[in-house]
C-alpha cells in the first residue's frame, strides 16, 4: 500500500516531487503515463489514498479522465490536480476530496495541501 500515486509525464517534475514527498515520509508510487498510473491503480499492493496528477498529459488522456477512472476504482481516493494552466479549472467545480495546485509551486506547498486532505503524516519522519 502507498500513500500517493504521482502522475506527471515530465520526468524532472515527477522525480523532484517524488523525492520531496518521500523525504516528508509519504509513500509514493510514480507514474510517467496514463497506462502506468492505471496499472498502479489496479494493483492490489498499491491502493493509494491520493492521486496527484498533471492535467496536461502528452502520453494519453488528460488528468481529469485518469482521476475519474481512479475514483471509480477507489471511491475514497483524494485527487490533487497540478497544472501550469489554471484556466482549465475555471469552468470546473472541484468536488470534496479534490484540490488544484497551479504550477510552479514548491514541494512544501503540495505537502501542506496533502496534510489539509489528511493524507500525509503530520510531521516529518524521525531523523529528517
From TrEMBL:
GO biological process, one term: phosphorelay signal transduction system
Record-annotated Response regulatory domain positions: 3-118
Top-rank lineage group of the source organism: Bacteria
SMART domains noted in UniProt: REC
Residues found modified as 4-aspartylphosphate: 54
One Pfam family in the UniProt entry: Response_reg
Record's keyword terms, sorted: Phosphoprotein
Coiled coil: none
Keyword NAD among record annotations: no
Name of the protein: Response regulator
Originating organism: Lichenicoccus roseus
